[in-house]
Amino acid sequence: MNKHDVMSKVIDTLNCKCPNCKDGKIFKDSGNIFLLKIPKMNDRCLVCDYKFERETGFFFGAMFVSYALAVAQMITCLVVFWSLIDFSPLRVFFIIVAMAFLLSTLNFKLSRSIWIYLFYKAKA
Ligand SMILES: [Zn+2]
């Protein structure tokens, strides 16, 4: 796999595209955190009929990815607002809480997309 393939794979993952045809979308909608709506998935790719949930409970593991994403974002936030901008700890805390809230639907989508790509094996 060359560099270009890795990059396009990363971009497809971030865009939540079907790993099989790179065309269909994994999610029906993006959800809305302010209405506490989580994003809805398509069961199968609308373009190539690839089944996203490979087995029951397949997405259980995506929770760990989501957790890792959240921790990475919190650490980034902490470094930026505390170390670089020198906000007070309380202010940093509220920024982190707000950010975790705002990014939760994104993390939900990204973690599942990453999970799907991790276990996707192209048929040769
Ligand atoms: Zn597809």
Compact overview of the structure:
By secondary structure, the protein is mostly helical. The protein contains 3 helices and no strands.
Descriptive keywords:
mainly alpha; binds zinc ion; 124 residues; globular
Describe this structure in words.
The chain has 124 residues and is mostly helical. It has one domain. It contains 3 helices and no strands. Helix 2 packs antiparallel against helix 3 (89-119). The longest helix is centred in the last third of the chain and has 31 residues, at 89-119. The protein is globular. 15% of the residues are buried. Bound molecules: zinc ion. Zinc ion is lined by residues 18, 20-21, 23-24, 45, 47-48, 50. Residues 18, 20-21, 23-24, 45, 47-48, 50 line the site of zinc ion.
Mean pLDDT, to the nearest integer, reads: 91
Overall strand count: 0
Category by helix and strand content? mainly alpha
Spatial extent as radius of gyration = 17 Å
Described by strand count, sense and barrel closure, the largest sheet is: none
Strand composition percent = under 5%
Count up the domains. Answer: 1
Share of residues in helices? 40-55%
The coarse silhouette is globular
SS summary, helix count: 3
Bound molecules: zinc ion
Encode the helix/strand succession as letters. HHH
List low-pLDDT spans.
none
End-to-end separation in angstroms reads 14 Å
Summarize the topology:
Blueprint lengths: L2 H12 L47 H23 L4 H31 L5
The protein binds zinc ion.
